Amino acid sequence: MTPSGVITLLTDFGLRDPYVGIMKGVILSIHPQVHLVDISHEVRPGDIVDGALVLQEAYSYFPPGTVHLVVVDPGVGGARRPMVLATQTYFFIGPDNGVFSLIIRNHPEAKAHHLTERRFFLPDISRTFHGRDIFAPAAAHLSSGVEPARLGCSFTDPTVVDIPAPRVRGSVLYGTVLRTDRFGNVITNISRADLKAFLQGRKPRIRMGDHLIEGMVGCYAEVERGTLVGLIGSCGCLEIAMSMGRASEHLRSDSEKIEGTEVSVRRGEPSEDLDR
Amino acid sequence: MTPSGVITLLTDFGLRDPYVGIMKGVILSIHPQVHLVDISHEVRPGDIVDGALVLQEAYSYFPPGTVHLVVVDPGVGGARRPMVLATQTYFFIGPDNGVFSLIIRNHPEAKAHHLTERRFFLPDISRTFHGRDIFAPAAAHLSSGVEPARLGCSFTDPTVVDIPAPRVRGSVLYGTVLRTDRFGNVITNISRADLKAFLQGRKPRIRMGDHLIEGMVGCYAEVERGTLVGLIGSCGCLEIAMSMGRASEHLRSDSEKIEGTEVSVRRGEPSEDLDR
Amino acid sequence: MTPSGVITLLTDFGLRDPYVGIMKGVILSIHPQVHLVDISHEVRPGDIVDGALVLQEAYSYFPPGTVHLVVVDPGVGGARRPMVLATQTYFFIGPDNGVFSLIIRNHPEAKAHHLTERRFFLPDISRTFHGRDIFAPAAAHLSSGVEPARLGCSFTDPTVVDIPAPRVRGSVLYGTVLRTDRFGNVITNISRADLKAFLQGRKPRIRMGDHLIEGMVGCYAEVERGTLVGLIGSCGCLEIAMSMGRASEHLRSDSEKIEGTEVSVRRGEPSEDLDR
Hints:
The structure is a homotrimer.
Chain A: E1 6-11, H1 19-30, E2 35-40, H2 48-58, E3 67-71, E4 82-86, E5 91-95, H3 101-106, E6 111-114, H4 130-143, H5 148-151, E7 154-155, E8 167-169, E9 172-180, E10 186-191, H6 192-199, E11 202-208, E12 211-214, E13 228-232, E14 237-242, H7 247-251, E15 262-270
Parallel strand pairs in A: 1-2, 1-3, 3-5
Antiparallel strand pairs in A: 4-5, 4-6, 6-7, 8-9, 9-10, 9-15, 10-14, 11-12, 11-15, 13-14
Helix pairs in contact in A: 1-4
């Protein structure tokens, strides 16, 4: 695979501290012509599943040969391996702690290498900031053409963490809220394909807690202000949204995190189009 | 107009979700040599006037031929047209919902085209994320030299929303607070030119709610800590600021939004210099 | 010194307002090939010491010849000089208000020039936004090869502000909390070298307020969840951290800022390795 010269960065570092800028300085010192793009630095601190979901949503929109650098690394300096993962189209680099679970699930052919070749790292390696000392320099070398195999030995058991998948029990499709976005949209793990296969030409009746949402709309503007709606969001999954409002605040009990909440779908009346 | 190779991005997407990064990936997949610059992604969600004001403040500092990509799009997927607007110096691309109102007001010669040519979009077009599926790819094509006319038909009635302008009634100049910035500066719609024309060589007496501010200063550091002052801020408009403090918190009632508040100016003593 | 073509930006402007984007537009209008990297825009508003600390942590990871543009400038428009500072390896540009104190302390050979040559600025110079009108254009010229001496006269008394250094009194090493990071790590001004020289092969007994922390660890993951630990953090200084938690919230009284709090270290049992 030929590198595209693009490196994306996805971390839980936030933007107040200079950590992201430092990684970019390290990369530019090795590969001055690189194109750096931030995916997000607001992954919830140490939340590997949150990082895996954001990566899944974004990675495929980049040019083939892009290096995706992901540092959500609560176990930095411990036993987890620093790794590079190569699918047929992209490179992924970061800790082997499950943050690449969805890539591995969807690309069983992906090849993992343990980053061990210190000549591709910074000379001094801290035990608290491998993003700077290991991942950034290795990503810079990858993006300038170094093969993954030169960075360390391959291995076949990369870490995969459990990320809930939807399931059908009886006449009900059960899913889970994975995350909310800035607009308060509540994003589930039920894909358009899951929903179509389950509904068999009927309208969905969506239940979340005490709320029943009948049918689906195609876009946020289709209904009156303040109405809760189901729709297929931009990542291709079922979302609960509120027109001109924040569904997440409406659906959440005060004290609870909404991520992890169950969403159930039953079959309603016949319908011609999922999006109507 | 020759493109500069620069695309700016202005949205209400925030930086936690991967939406901005995804748009950049789409752009780089089409135009790898582009230079991407963020103006802001913290426009208030769905607030078209806020987006229009931030764009107005920033756009003219970029190289001629820059493509300004603006996605503040509460009606995404509905009836509003996706559009490109070309002045003599810049391209603007985004929804035809009023977010370009100030550009249109100041550049009546600007030409609008309805984005309809699907070969310049992503192959699949969602109804919830035109930033990714329509605006980003079309912006990439614009910045690599595709003429606006090839993106769709021209039209002559782009949407303009009402953004308050200052007005004189009797011996008083009335203006409105448009926004506040990070430093708590309270920015009005009264420009330096408005003020000079009104004052006719006299000092301003500025009133906002119960506060009377006499005269103007040239910079924040000119007065004692905690003093409310009037000055011409960096966007060339009258601001109320507080030296080493936050005017916005001092001037706002607890329960109210400060945007939209009336500011009035009367003529005071003779003065040699507006900024003294 | 040959410029690297990289300009970093470090400000207290935040990311909601368009100020950072505007500076980038100004730079690109002068030097289109430049590579722009954000270090942080979340320096506490007007906090010169905070800016100096963030700069110190980040600057040396960039390619030699990088221009570091720093705008933390509460005295903008007043008497403080706009300046450029050149060490043997980097350029620094910003207000002469102490934000470069740590660079000057560590590089006494650095040469300062007063930015006075208006042909390298924007044509109109406001008194409230020198980042846009003076520093950004001058940085663009520097990064495209203009020598510092052409930007204005040299001077030898750049402003240095007091930033606390650790000190030994009797058998105790006293330090100060300088800042906290996103993960709640509490970062002191005691460097690894300070600590080694003081401990002379013994374990540290660290005290902060009512908390006593015995010994050090090498990384966050080494101890049980919720344990307060001392370690040498990524900037090479003593940090107090909490495994899988936020030390800053645990150590801070409700009403107080933790920055400036005293940390003391005494010598404990013999130890082979500082990091064990």
